Amino acid sequence: MILEVKDVTKLFGGLQALNHVSFTLPEGQILGLIGPNGAGKTTLFNVINGVFPPDQGRVTLRGEDITGLPPYEVARRGLARTYQVVRPLADLTVLENVMVGSCFGRHCYSLHQAAQVAREVLQQVGLVRHSALPAGSLNVAEKKRLELARAVAAQPYLLLLDEVLAGLNPSEIAAMLDTIRRIRDTGVTIIMIEHVMQAVMNISERILVLDYGQIIADGSPQEVANNLAVIEAYLGDPKLAARLLTG
Amino acid sequence: MTLWRRPGLWIPLILVFLWGLLILVSGLDSMREVTFTLMMFATLAASLNILLGYTGYVSFGHIVFFGLGGYTGFYLLSQRGWPLSLAAVSGGLLSAAVAGLLGLAVLRLRGAYFALATIGINEAARAFISNFSPFGGATGLFVNFSYYQSYGGAGRALWLTFISLWLTILLVTVVSYGVKHSRFGLGLMAIREDEDAALVMGVKAPQAKTIAFVISAFFPGIVGTLYFFKNGNVEPGDAFQLHMSIETLVMIMLGGQGTVSGPLLGAVTYQGLRGYLLTSPLFKSLHLAIAGLVLLLIVLFLPAGAIGWLRQRFQGLRRFLE
Ligand SMILES: Nc1ncnc2c1ncn2[C@@H]1O[C@H](COP(=O)(O)OP(=O)(O)O)[C@@H](O)[C@H]1O
Ligand SMILES: [Mg+2]
C-alpha cells in the first residue's frame, strides 16, 4: 500500500470536516475523490500532506507514519499536490516555478539537475515555450498546467490533484486528461478530486465518495454511479446526479 | 561556471572595486568620508535585501543589528584592545547569533506583524543597552586615543577602516549574488512569492528564513563596528536609529528589491539626493518626509525599482543586470 488513511477526523471549531475517514490505496492506481462542495475533499488532502494535523487518526505513506509531519517533510518523502485555486510563484519564471518543485521534492536536486528535470516536465505538460515568462503572466489553463508541472517535477510516488480540470474548456480537459494518464503510466499513484464527472469516471480505476466528511461509497466507477447513497448525496444537484448515472 | 560568464556578478564587483580604488588613490579625507557613508548604506541595503528582497520579509528594525554588532565590536576594540578586523567580525557574528535566536520566534509572524515585531526588538535593544553598564549605559563608550597609535595614528586608522568597509561591501555583493543563484536562494524566493505553497513543495521555510535573517544581520554588525570606530565613540542614540532602517528600505525599493546591484545603486542615489536635501535649507527638516514620499511613489509607480524596471523593460539586459 502506498497510502493508508486510518480513522482520520478533522474538526474546524464545531464543524466536523472529516469524520472517521479510512481507506487504503495500492500503488499505480488513479483514485477519483468526489463529493458535493464542502464535503471535506480538500481538507482530506490538507491532512494527508501535512498542512493540518488531524484531530484523530493516522496517515501512513509507504509504510511510514507521516501523521503530523510538516508539509515540507511530507514532500520530501515523495508526496506532491496541486492547489484547487492555483498558486503560481508569480514573479518567478515558469521554469523557476517548476525548479522549486524538483529542487525540494523527493530528490533534493541541485539547481543544474533541477533545471533539466523542469525542462523535461514542461515539455510533457506543453508549457516549454513559456519557460522564460513570469508565471503570473500565464492564463488560467496554463496556470493549471504549471501547477501540475510543479508537482510532477518533484517526482513523487503519490500525486494529489485538486480540481485540475475546473475552469478548462473541453479540448483543454482532453489534453489535461491525456497528460494525467501519461503521468500515471510513469508509475505515479494519483488521487484526483474532480467535479467534471464524466472525466473522473472515465479516468479513475476507483472512486471514493465523500459527503459531510464521511466516506459514503468506495468502488469502481460503475458501482459508485449506481450507488443509491451517492445519488442521494447529489440530489441537491439533480443535473449532476443524472450525469453520474449516465457517466 | 566561470566568472566571466557571470556578468551580473563581476560588473557590480568591478565597479565597486574601482570606486574604492579611486578613493584610495586620491588619498583625500573628504572623499573618504563621503564614500564611507555611501558604502555603509550600500552594504546595509544589500544585506537587508537578502531578507526583504529575496525572502519577502520586511524588517523595519533591522538597524538593531548595526547597533548590537557595532556596540559589541566597539566594546571589544576599545575596552579589550582587540584588533579592528577581529572586533568587526565578532560584531557581525554577535548580530548573526542574535538574529538566529530571534528568528526562530519572530519569523513565525508574517507581514505587518513581523515588521512591527522588528521595531519592538530595536526599541528593546536600545533600552537594554542604555542600562547595560559594561557598554557604558546611556553615555556609551569611547575609544582611547592611544588605541590609534597601534595603527600608526588616527589618519591611518581611518584609512584602514575605509579599506575594511570596502572589503565588506565587496563581500556582501558576492554573497548576494551567491545566495540569489543557489538552491537556497530559490527556496527563499519561493517563500517570498507564496510561503504556504513553498512549504508544500518541500521548502523548509522555518530554517531557510532563519538562515536568511542570520546572513542579513551579519554584515550590519561589521559595518556598525567600523562606523563607531571611525567616530571614536558609540552611544545608544546613534546605534539604534529607526530612521536609518527606514531609509535603508527606501534605498532597496528605489534600486530594486531582490536584485544584486539594485540596493547598491539605490543607496548611492538616495544618499546623493539626501545630501542635497540636507544642504538645502528649505528641505533640511523635511528629508524624512521626502523619503516617505519617494517610497510612496516607488511603491505606486515603480514597484520593481530601477534595476527591476530595466530588467523587465529590456530583456537583453537581464544577464548583465542582476
Ligand atoms: N481552514 C479552514 N478553517 C475552517 N473551516 C474550513 C477550513 N477549510 C475548510 N473548512 C470547512 O470544512 C468544510 C470542508 O471544506 P473542503 O474540504 O474545502 O470541501 P471540498 O473541498 O470538499 O469542497 C467546509 O465546510 C469548509 O468551510
Ligand atoms: Mg475543495
Question: Describe it for me?
Answer:
Chain A is α/β, with parallel strands linked by helices. Chain A folds into two domains: 1-78 and 158-247, 3-Layer(aba) Sandwich (Rossmann fold); 84-155, no CATH class. In chain A, 39% of the residues lie in helices and 24% in strands. Chain A has ten helices and ten strands. Chain A has helices at 41-48, 71-76, 94-103, 111-125, 140-153, 170-185, 197-203, 221-225, 228-233, 238-246, and strands at residues 3-12, 15-25, 30-34, 56-61, 64-65, 79-81, 158-162, 189-193, 206-211, 214-219. In chain A, the strands form two sheets. A six-stranded mixed beta sheet of chain A has the order 6-7-8-3-9-10, with helices on both faces. In chain A, strands 2-1-4-5 form a four-stranded antiparallel beta sheet, with helices on one face. In chain A, helix 3 packs across helix 4 and helix 3 packs parallel to helix 5 (140-153). Chain B is mostly helical and 322 residues long. Chain B has one domain (2-241). Chain B has helices at residues 7-26, 29-55, 63-78, 84-106, 112-130, 145-149, 154-180, 183-193, 195-200, 205-231, 236-239, 242-255, 262-279, 287-301, 305-313; strands spanning 141-142, 233-234. Chain B has a two-stranded antiparallel sheet with strand order 1-2. In chain B, helix 2 (29-55) crosses helix 12 (242-255). The radius of gyration of chain B is 19 Å and the shape is globular. Chain B starts with 6 loop residues before the first helix and ends in a 9-residue tail after the last helix. The interface between A and B is medium-sized, with 28 and 21 residues. The site of magnesium ion has 3 residues of chain A, from helix 1.
